[in-house]
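Entry 14. Structure prediction run on the chain below.
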Amino acid sequence: MKRLLHYLSNYKLESILGPLFKMLEASFELFVPLVVASMIDKGIKHQDVAYILRMGGILILLGIIGLACSLTAQYFAAKTAVSTASCLRNDLFFHISHLSYPEIDGVGTSTLITRMTSDINQVQTGINMVLRLFLRSPFVVFGAMVMAFTVDVKAAMAFVVVIPLLSAVVFGILLISMPLYKKVQKQLDQVMLTTRENLFGVRVIRAFNRQKSETARFEEENGLLVRFQVFVGKISALLNPITYIMINFATIAVIWIGAKQVDGGMITQGKVVALVNYMSQILVELIKLANLIITISKSIACMNRVDSVFKLEPSIREKAGASGTGEAFPGEAGAAVPKVEFRQVSALYAGAKEEALSDICFSAGKGETIGIIGGTGSGKSTLVNLIPRFYDIASGSLLVNGVEVKDYSLGRLREAIGVVPQKAVLFQGSLRENMRWGKEDASDEEIYRALDIAQAREFVEQKGKGLDLMIEQGGRNLSGGQKQRLTIARALVKNPEILILDDSASALDFATDAKLRKAIKENTQDMTVFLVSQRAATIKNADQILVLDDGKLAGKGTHKELLNQCELYREICLSQFSREEVERDGR
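Output returned:
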């Protein structure tokens, strides 16, 4: 809640004026029963039409003033709620974008989406309702009780009894329902996860004819959410009937006591009507307060969930005094300094029992091509993700140009590295906009040169729109191979010092893959290239090949050296080439 109050402090004036105008509206409303009582006791009793009309005019005036106050309060409340939610959403997006991979992996994409959308929308609703009703409803309740005492002390004692009882019921249900709403929101995350998996994997689901089982799975998750919502809804629904029962009994008590006093000539009929009106006002406001309590319960639960994301701190941090953006990499003049060097590097994922990489040692010089191969789960992607510090090493030293990667600012380090991830990701917009992600001022010539190297220019020109080709969300209007070639081109436009291709040509045919590797070799002479692949043909011509097995370096050397020295590499090659080819290459 402290965080929310911090955001609300930016709208102090609106946060004060909203409740203030609501209380003004309530103040005028409290005078209505007195005017009605006077109308009955004086106007109707004495058949004074002029007095009745005068009092009727006062009622209309009170209604108009109350309406104006209500509209003004609603304006300030809505402005505060929408503005606060907007700032909260912007800051949460900024915070999430600066979280490291381990934190994002831990929380999960579906959960973060729910926090950004559903939870903040609920917080916005809560702020709006609180500014409008949180002060108004208690003010009317206690104000009506005070006004009832000005009418008649004895009859007003019913108010003294019923209001504490109602308060106990309302806040008791609040304490019970708040943790249950947290459970509901958590299950909503699970439904979101199931929905996301099904939407992203719809082709796989249909290919394996798993629609029925996935529908059953979704119905189970959604059914659990419904059961949670119904359970907490039943508890929250108790507010209205209990409130109605208690207020109606109190109203009966007021009428009974008032009737006796009217019969004894102690009070007038108008005052009894005023007391009943005050009891009715309390009833209406407590119903509003009960609904407000439900909304507040949801909003507090949602704000706590949002706050839990804000409390996540990125595990990858810059050192004080790290080299900043725009500074040249040190060590360029020293030819003996490797571009990238791993010294007994180990890596461990958060929560994992075993290391993903153990004791990795190798160096890559300027302009060299490093091939990385190994079985699934051997640590290939983990290794290359350590270079731009997507993850931190657990032990050892990782140097770029002779300097520890932790001594660079993240911006400067990643400026010099072009990464093409396993999954090709493009963004909605023109091809030109997508290509300029790494270099905002890239010319069309630079983009076309990158497209040529990535073997993408041909299909781009066939589409007839050149760089103005519109890419749909997620690149839906492109094939898998086309998306991969465009993501490679995007990295090449950046002209990085280090290029990482993490199995980024898996969707390409062998001929296109061969052309791509040849073009990269010929046009990136000064660039250190890391090629991660399952295909031996992709990395066989690399200057140095790393063979990984269960996180350990099983072999290191050229294609020919590894065929003669590394049994695992030889097995991989034999599974992909004929024995004659392997024997010939090993000679």
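The longest strand covers residues 340-347.
Filed with the rest of this week's runs.
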